[in-house]
Structure formats: structure tokens, C-alpha cells
Amino acid sequence: MPELPEVQTVVNTLAGRILGRRIATVRLLCDDIVDPPGCDLVGRLQNRIIRAVTRRGKRIVFSLHDGNRFYIHLGMSGRLTLEPADSPILKHTHLILKLVTDATHGQSDDGLHLRFRDPRRFGGVWWIGSEADGNGCDDRIGPEPLTLHPAQLAKRLARTRRAIKSALLDQTLIAGLGNIYADESLFAARLHPLTPASSLDDQQIARLNRAIKTTLRRAIRHRGSSLRDYVDADGLAGGFQNLHRVYDRAGQPCPACRTPIARIVISGRSTCFCPKCQTLQGARDTKTKSLPGHARHIWPDRDQCPKPTPAR
Are 49 and 101 spatial neighbours (Cβ–Cβ below 8 Å)? Predict the structure, then answer.
């Protein structure tokens, strides 16, 4: 699933090309991707001008000239790309916005297509409406990690005794983190993913807060991680997958100490970490001792680890 760095990269590649363009036509090829159900998305977008495109968590938020907004969530396999109007429409394309450079109904150029394609259909389009009407984009999601103060992070993590890995994936606590950057941030902070979130002391909180920001900013500089489906709005893959230190590297040597990277499952999510650099306080041997019911260790051979595939 595209996480904060990937979504920010899509926003960055969109912004310079679509701002000020008018949505000349709207083709909704799959109406069940729209929320709320029954929303007249076509009528609400037709002939509107895009004034801004921003990110909130993992959401790509579009602001229109009439004050209304909508957002697109890429889900697991979604792509939001800019393509020539005459390019073939690929299977699983659910929404096409034809964008033209004029702000009137008169003469215009040949247009550019903004296409949303989502084979697995976990993503979609959400109509927000006007902020003046009290409609916000937050929708119970947590604060942005790039601007989060350590005291805020401590306060939010103190609410739960869940494993810190599970807490970081909870979008109501912190917005934008997913499996990749939770694993990478915990490694950088030298925290075991099963550490209870509420048990972190001030030093550990500060270390984690710094690690999250450093990891995300570095990933954004490298245009995100392309493991399977993700590409930016220009159809280009990211490069941060080549710099992962623990994620998707089970069985390979830790870049810091050369201990084989371990993989466990926490709350149904695969989690990679270094058992030497990220020790679990109070556990004598996390490889052999029993773990909480929501976690189990998996020590795969290197050949069992999923391999990144080129972007299509």
C-alpha cells in the first residue's frame, strides 16, 4: 500500500501540471468507488477548476475553485497518473478526468487525462464538500508525523498498551505510516516492534520521533518505495526500496551488526527487525520464548522472501 512518502511523491508530481486546469469531462467507469454512495461525483466535478492538490495522511486531496474538495485514496494497488488523452485505457481504470488549460467553456487544448486505476479496488474517491459547511478531511485520522512534537507523540502512545508496531499503523493515532516505514523507523530508533507503546520513556519517544521524521524525509527524497504497484503521477517508480534496511529483508544480514533480519507477524502484519539491534526489554530470548498471542515468529529462508517487481 502506498504510504506517506509515496502519496507525497504523487502530490508533488501532480501539483506542477494540474493546478489551474479545468475538469472538462468526467468518466466514472465504476461508480462503487465513490463515497458517499449515490454522490453525483460527475456533476460536482464537471467544469470545476483545480486550485490545489495536497496530502493528508495517505489521502490525495483536491481543492476546487468553488470551495469544495474531494480526495483519492490509492488503497493497496491504486495508481493516479497523468496520461495523454489518446493513450489506451487500461483495465481496472475506474475514473478519468480530462483536464484542459482554459477556465471557460470556449476554446481549449487537447487536454490531459488524470486516471485512477485500482485492480484490487481497496481505494476510492471520497467527496468532502466545502469546509465552510463544516466538512473536513481529517475524518478521525491522527496528526501528521512530519510535524509531530515528541510530547504529542508521547501523549498519543500513552493511550495504548498495544505493540508499538501496531500503534504506528493505527491511522487514528498517527496519519500516513504503514508497514514499510513503521519497520524502518523502529529499526532506526532501535526499538523492538513488540514493545508496548505506553511503556516508552522520554528518551525512546524522542528517538522514535526523530527516526520517523528522518526516515520519511529520506524516502520522499528518493520518491518512495516501488515494490509492486506504486508509481508516481508520471508513471515512474520510486527508488527507496533499494535503501530499505529491514523491511522485506528477512534472512539477510542487518546493515549494522550482520545478524540475520527476523520476521514476525504482529496483528496480522508482517514485521521485519534485527533481534540484536532491537531487543525486547524483559525478554531473555525472543527467538525461542513464547510471544503474545497476537504475534508469532517466522524465520524464513532468504529465498522465501518476496522479491520486488518492476513497476508496470
Answer: no
